[in-house]
From TrEMBL:
EC number in record: 3.6.1.27
Full protein name: Undecaprenyl-diphosphatase
PANTHER family membership: DECAPRENYLPHOSPHORYL-5-PHOSPHORIBOSE PHOSPHATASE RV3807C-RELATED (PTHR14969:SF62), SPHINGOSINE-1-PHOSPHATE PHOSPHOHYDROLASE (PTHR14969)
Domain of life: Bacteria
Predominant location: membrane
Mode of membrane association: Multi-pass membrane protein
Regions that span the bilayer: 35-54, 61-80, 115-144, 156-174
GO MF term list: undecaprenyl-diphosphatase activity
Compartments where located: Cell membrane
Pfam families in the record: PAP2 (PF01569)
Start and end residues of each Phosphatidic acid phosphatase type 2/haloperoxidase domain: 61-171
Classification of source organism: Bacteria, Bacillati, Bacillota, Bacilli, Bacillales
Amino acid sequence: MSRVVNWLQHHETRMFHFVNQRIQHFFLDHFFSRITHLGGATATIVISLCCALFGQGQLRIAGIQALIALTISHIPVAIIKKKYPRLRPYLVHPQTITYKNPLTDHSFPSGHTTAIFSIIIPFMTAIPVLGVILLPLALIVGLSRIYLGLHYPSDCLVGCLIGTAASLATVGLWG
């Protein structure tokens, strides 16, 4: 079992270093440092709340569902961060490239990735054509967390799974 865990950690670290150090580019620095905020609390709450309050029909329902999924998804995130206090990559790997205001709380799982995935599913369910934009956008937010040196790939993968599960449960129970 420890051989498997070591193998996984080794490959995850390699993947992290590739995204964080090998694909560095001036354009990507600015792009990822801006787009990452779409998974933050302010953006996800404001977008969902505006759709819930001011949207009509399916958009309004999607906004309400997104708010519920966002709330539900962060319960396991808070529990897991306390139970499995994983240090952020830049604290473990000194060569990690970080940007403004690196975070100091625990890395696992990614709250930004959880948040963006928890809000996109209701909108994709209500208006399926939005999936062409929203799914790649959510994946880019997750990738930005790795690029910016704040999360390992598994942090983002688990955040994606938690956000998606909370959102699917909310949408499924709604109707």
